[in-house]
Write a structure and sequence with these properties.
It contains 3 helices and no strands. The model has no long low-confidence stretch (mean pLDDT about 80). By secondary structure, the chain is an all-alpha fold. The chain has helices spanning about 45, 60-70, 75-85. Helices cover about 30% and strands about 0% of the residues.
């Protein structure tokens, strides 16, 4: 873990895994969000929105649970398949 995070107080059991995977390039045929090229990842459209926390519905929570169950090992293969099919993240 980087030195600047060693004293970070996590609230749950999820932890970052180091070393991080390499940054993958997004092909030009895939539309990128406005924050994709911002150095700090800031979104212009989000900067003018209200900063409220979204309360998820039961269906949205179940969807998030399904997404979070995906193990990190097939990430590269899934990424390559999406790009090959001209999809996007």
């Amino acid at each position: 873990m980087p030195a600047n995070m060693r004293d970070y107080k996590f609230t749950g059991t999820m932890r970052p895994v180091y070393p991080l995977s390499e940054k993958r390039a997004i092909p030009d045929h895939i539309e990128k969000p406005d924050y994709a090229d911002h150095p700090q990842g800031w979104s212009q459209c989000e900067s003018v929105r209200e900063k409220a926390v979204k309360i998820l519905t039961k269906e949205e929570i179940e969807g998030m649970r399904k997404v979070c169950r995906v193990c990190p090992s097939p990430q590269k293969e899934v990424w390559e398949l999406m790009i090959a099919c001209k999809g996007g993240p």
